[in-house]
Amino acid sequence: MKKLFLIVLFIASIVYIVYKFIILPSQEKKTSAQTNNNQVQETVYESAGSLILGFPDIPVYSNLVVDKSFKKELNGKTNYVATWFFEGDNKEIMKWYADEFVKTGWTVVGPFIYESENKLEIDAENSMYKLRLLNTEREEGDTGKPGELIMVEIIQK
Amino acid sequence: MKLIFQKIIKIVLLVMFLLISLFELKNLQVFAQSGDPVIAGAGDISPRSNGPQFQTANLLDSINPAFVLTFGDNQYPDGILADFNTYYHPSWGRFKSRTRPSTGNHDYHTPGGAGYFDYFNGVGVNSGVAGDRSKGYYSYNVGSWHLIALNSEAMSSTQNAWLAADLQANQGTACTLAYWHEPRFSSGAVHGSNNRSVPFWDLLYQYKADVVLNGHDHLYERFAPQNPSGGSDPTNGIREFIAGTGGAGLYAFGSPIANSQFRVSTHGVLKLTLHQTSYDWQFININSQVLDSGSGNCVMGSAVTSTPGSGPTSTRTPTPPNLPSPTRTRTPTPTLPGVPSPTRTRTPTQSVVSPTQIVGSPTPTGNICTYFKN
């Protein structure tokens, strides 16, 4: 019994050492190398008051007013950000978004609460993009016009 | 033969045990304090749910800082005491005795920030770790550093005069760090830069402060040392960090503004090691990955007596054809009436050391997350 215990302990130790000293360092090295290869400047294009050229075709709730939109090119991928002003019931709007994303083929997680019952976030993805949409607000003194905002960030996969 | 075999196994196990112990000890030392004080913090912390604030609190456990700093919006949505007790307390509240908080706009949704002061100072107690209820600003020393918690939600000439006097009285400390909620400079798409704290920046720059920490935009951003107008100033400038990443829903970045050096939208905490005349920083995400790190020297030499110099230099790329040109304006920095002229002198002038960072755009598991450096 004691011998069996020692053998099990011995094998477990071997597995641990192989993982810690051989497998894990090689994974870290790989990550580091990938990171170093990605030293590419981000290029950002900005449009005020309208959606920027090439902005992905996503559902947009009626009567929203575009604040700003951005197109970001990084490492061969193009990501997008947009903010809209809205008035009305944010829960209703977020529910509408969740339903519409499903109807247009997105896989949706949420809406879930991120700050309070009135602050909701939807995460969604399709074959090309990952998307995060939330409602928030901008106050007096911040850059730009204050108001209730819908923000969406779309990341190319 | 059997005995020899057992002895060999025992010796091998003992050697392995020692090796594993040494390895794990080495890992622990990553987070251990090297003698110089370590502080850590973030803003925009506790949603009204059991959210990522618990994961960022676990990071604080690993870092084990001497002080935990908060950069406002400690408890969403309205800074109510009951919500502090239900959501903040089981997470960041674990470090309450060593927390030096600052308040945010959401904390002031409750009149006078009552819930915030009740939580940190004690119910109905006027003064405590969060400062006097009527002020919400205070200062303290950590090693050779002077740390100042300011209140961007109740700007007043009284607070500005207090800040000037506090800076004047602490010119003997080698380095100065100030923190509050709403950032002077931000590339965030939701809030962006905010002129509210210009008076803070003017005074801090005049008195050769070194580091400013903010929240408000729910993201992490690091700037190169700059003056209050946003002009690059490697010699006398202040380095601003935004770490509104304590647990609230994350925001995206818009166009990067001048001097922005590193941007990432993910939950995590900022760790600073405060050396005698320098500092190290690390931004650590909830997967314990260090996404940004570097070192800087404290500003040395005579106090800056003139109004900040050059204006910002744009790093924005051109808008594609057929699209309206982006416009962004920055209000000129006003001078503060009645503020005494600083006479502080520090020994030799040094410039800030360039940091090394993780760069690129890997996508950590879980949240959407992009990060990069200029």
Automatic annotation (TrEMBL), chain A:
Highest taxon above the source species: Bacteria
Protein name (Swiss-Prot/TrEMBL): Uncharacterized protein
Automatic annotation (TrEMBL), chain B:
Keywords: Signal
Biased composition (Low complexity): 304-317, 341-354
Domain Calcineurin-like phosphoesterase positions: 40-219
MF terms in GO: acid phosphatase activity
UniProt-annotated stretches for the region Disordered: 303-360
Statement: the UniProt record of this protein carries the keyword Signal: yes
InterPro entries assigned to the protein according to its UniProt record, in alphabetical order: Calcineurin-like_PHP, Metallo-depent_PP-like, PAPs-like
Domain of life: Bacteria
Protein name per its UniProtKB record: Calcineurin-like phosphoesterase domain-containing protein
Organism: Candidatus Roizmanbacteria bacterium RIFCSPLOWO2_01_FULL_37_12
Lineage: Bacteria, Candidatus Roizmaniibacteriota
